[in-house]
Amino acid sequence: MRIIRSRSELATQRAQWRTEGQRIGVVPTMGSLHSGHLALVDALDGKATRRIVSVFVNPIQFNNLADFEHYPRGLEADAAVLEGTGKVDVLYAPDETEMYPPGFATRITVAGPDAMLCGAERPGHFDGVATVVSKLLLQTGADVAAFGEKDYQQLCLIRRLVCDLDLPVSIVPVPTVREADGLALSSRNRRLNAAQRQQATHLPAALRACIADIKAGRPVADSLQTCRDRLTGSGFNVHYLELRTGDTLEQTATPQPDARLFVAASLGDIRLIDNMPLHQA
Hints:
The protein is α/β, with parallel strands linked by helices.
């Protein structure tokens, strides 16, 4: 596995692969890798002959400087994890100047998905996501890219972006990977202390209970309020808890077949997000 830090070196590697007829698969990440990221790498099996994993903590998607500064980092450890898979050809790890050279002045906005859920609370966040993902897809020349359903709103936004800009890349959605106790894997989980980590298990448990209530015929509004109360009683500050369609992300008060339950809630200053489909396949 090669570690590449510059756009020019990446372009050379990409051109070589193109002359060889290789198919390039990409997994964009912000590092602090875990099993959820490795599931994205595995999702490219049979879909790509060369794989690139990018590691870049993107400053323009953070609207909280402290959150950016505290985001876990560890490139050496990430490289070891990727090397251990035996599947990754390139770890692309540009620095901020490489990604956003002096004079950089462009932002990409995907209207709709950017203004709800996490977007409503974090102005500019999804502009930053759309911009960096566009750059990474173009820099790598990706034929296929894998994104997790854990960040389902982001997945929907990227699908819209790729469609609207006619980017020649297929987006592969990958189901959320969870710990044995149900907590969705996230790099932010590493910031939880022991007590908070125990509290965090109430998040997926409350979502499962809410879904069971809705499927049993209880009104959606009542089920959501009970879920919110459970989370608040477990020590969470609930930012949002909503039932939305799985395609357009429109709010719904009825248990439609593709509906998903979305939540963002904090323990202290650590913000956790999760989502679950109302009807499992």
